[in-house]
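Support reply, case 0932

Customer input (verbatim):
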Amino acid sequence: METLVLQVLGMSCGGCEQRIDAVLRRVEGVRDVTADHTTGAVRVRIGPELSDRGVLVERLETAGYEVVEGASQ
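Our regenerated output:
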């Protein structure tokens, strides 16, 4: 398991956190999602079967959010 931390712009409430959670949990290999609209941080626990992490950014952008480049760990 690996944990990525993405800095996401555009979250303004708990509803945004829930939407991000739902969007990312649909990605195969995502084990857990924790979004915090007050800090803009989204923590994503992923398994080894998720080889293309770019799909996480694509899903977030499709949902209307912006991921700050270089903010993943």
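We compared this against your earlier run and they match. Two observations from our side: The longest strand covers residues 2-9. The helical segments are 14-25, 54-62. Please reopen the case if you see a mismatch on your end.
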